[in-house]
């Protein structure tokens, strides 16, 4: 099921590329766009295969824990 | 820049986002800290709204047509400025993912328990991405169209709950001193600090001369609306305000006229969806626009789709239940919002003033 999801989401990302293809005339735009698609794919892979191991909510809680008693009630 | 909108339209967009999420989420959090004096916490928190408007006006007059992220890079230099901008974008993105999750948890807990989360999140993110792709003007127009319906429903909800309210529920005032309302202000600060996001949209403002007046008026209107809504919940539910996850839903479910006008909770959902759409679209626009300028893209539309997809994944990932979202997520988001919308602009303002002072000598 995870692999099916991975393929499905990858197809969605390819769809993004096809949608924006005509607007990616500049080299810099193309590089940044592919970099963003790469980040999307990596996050998607982590989400599907390391769902509970790499939870961003836990990471943020760990980072901001000292400030929560002062700023966030 | 082709797209232009008035400061009033931008402020209306924020107003809708603040009151629709505030009326659902604020009462419980505020009551648990400030109990009966929650109205005072809202008033103290609103001071940050006025402060935000003053800071944005200062930026508007000093750096014409520049967003806060661009000002950061100009003031702090390319390395430190860009590092701070990246942190700002990431934290705002996390807040945005939280808002999408908040919306999903509310919808799935109260109305659609059997619908998969990815359908609820996906449909909202798709519509928001479509709005962002068409620019800030579309988002502001959507907010303007929704405004009369939202105001009509809120006034109807408050008026129809009048028979059940008791003003004794407000007493005693300041029974535990000033400390609980001051601590509670950190909750309302997070909502009022959202006005600071306007500093990311300054290039799109058409008539910047009236910004200060419009901004002050809108913060006052937001304060009055929140006070009416939240105090009416307190007058109706009293000590029960701090118990349910969404006290507004409970207070609205009390409304019953002639046994044929009941169960108007469905209307709350409709209003919530519109409010959430406006708020999430605006946040998404801010993230997409500031990340495009951070990445030096020729058009912000190019990264609308990838960032929306990331938002979809993040909001699916974080806080799977309403309990964890409210217990763990709310304090964290309040902290992040205050950091991003209060300390970050203050830091930049300090640097700008310091630089100006040094240049004068």
TrEMBL record, chain B:
Compartments reported by the entry: Membrane
Membrane topology: Multi-pass membrane protein
Pfam families recorded: Spore_permease
Principal localisation: membrane
Keywords for the protein's UniProt record, in alphabetical order: Germination, Membrane, Transmembrane, Transmembrane helix, Transport
Example GO BP: spore germination
InterPro entries: Spore_GerAB (IPR004761)
Record field: transmembrane: 7-26, 38-60, 80-99, 119-136, 143-165, 185-205, 217-246, 266-288, 300-320, 332-354
Gene Ontology, cellular component aspect: membrane
Family annotation (NCBIfam families): 2A0309
Similarity comment: Belongs to the amino acid-polyamine-organocation (APC) superfamily. Spore germination protein (SGP) (TC 2.A.3.9) family.
UniProt-listed PANTHER family: SPORE GERMINATION PROTEIN A2 (PTHR34975)
Protein's name in the database: Endospore germination permease
Organism: Terrilactibacillus tamarindi
């Amino acid at each position: 099921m995870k692999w099916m999801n991975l393929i499905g989401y990858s197809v969605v990302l390819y769809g993004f590329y096809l949608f924006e293809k005509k607007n990616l005339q500049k080299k810099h735009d193309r590089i940044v766009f592919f970099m963003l698609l790469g980040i999307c794919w990596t996050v998607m892979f982590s989400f599907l295969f390391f769902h509970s191991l790499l939870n961003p909510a836990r990471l943020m809680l760990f980072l901001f824990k000292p400030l929560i008693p002062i700023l966030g009630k | 820049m082709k797209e232009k909108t008035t400061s009033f339209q931008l402020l209306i967009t924020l107003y809708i986002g603040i009151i629709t999420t505030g009326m659902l989420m604020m009462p419980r959090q505020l009551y648990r800290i400030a109990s009966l004096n929650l109205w005072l916490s809202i008033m103290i928190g609103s001071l940050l709204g006025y402060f935000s408007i003053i800071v944005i006006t200062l930026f508007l007059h000093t750096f014409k047509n520049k967003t806060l992220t661009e000002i950061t890079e100009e003031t702090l230099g390319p390395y430190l400025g860009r590092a701070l901008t990246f942190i700002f974008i990431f934290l705002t993105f996390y807040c945005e993912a939280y808002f999408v999750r908040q919306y999903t948890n509310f919808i799935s807990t109260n109305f659609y328990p059997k619908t998969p989360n990815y359908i609820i999140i996906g449909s909202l993110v798709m519509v928001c991405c479509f709005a962002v792709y068409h620019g800030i003007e579309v988002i502001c127009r959507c907010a303007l169209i929704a405004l009369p319906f939202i105001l009509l429903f809120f006034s109807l909800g408050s008026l129809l709950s009048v028979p059940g309210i008791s003003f004794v529920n407000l007493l005693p005032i300041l029974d535990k001193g000033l400390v609980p309302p001051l601590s509670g202000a950190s909750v309302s600060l997070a909502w009022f600090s959202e006005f600071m996001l306007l500093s990311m949209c300054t290039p799109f403002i058409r008539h910047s001369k009236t910004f200060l007046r419009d901004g002050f008026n809108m913060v006052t209107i937001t304060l009055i609306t929140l006070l009416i809504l939240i105090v009416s919940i307190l007058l109706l539910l009293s000590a029960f305000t701090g118990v349910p996850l969404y006290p507004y839903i409970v207070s609205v479910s009390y409304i019953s006229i002639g046994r044929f006008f009941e169960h108007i909770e469905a209307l709350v959902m409709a209003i919530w969806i519109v409010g959430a759409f406006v708020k999430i679209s605006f946040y998404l626009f801010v993230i997409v626009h500031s990340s495009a300028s951070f990445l030096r893209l020729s058009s912000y539309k190019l990264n609308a789709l990838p960032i929306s997809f990331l938002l979809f994944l993040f909001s699916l990932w974080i806080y799977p239940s309403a309990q964890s979202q409210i217990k763990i997520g709310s304090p964290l988001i309040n902290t992040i919002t205050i950091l991003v919308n209060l300390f970050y602009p203050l830091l930049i303002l300090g640097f700008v003033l310091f630089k100006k002072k040094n240049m004068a000598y």
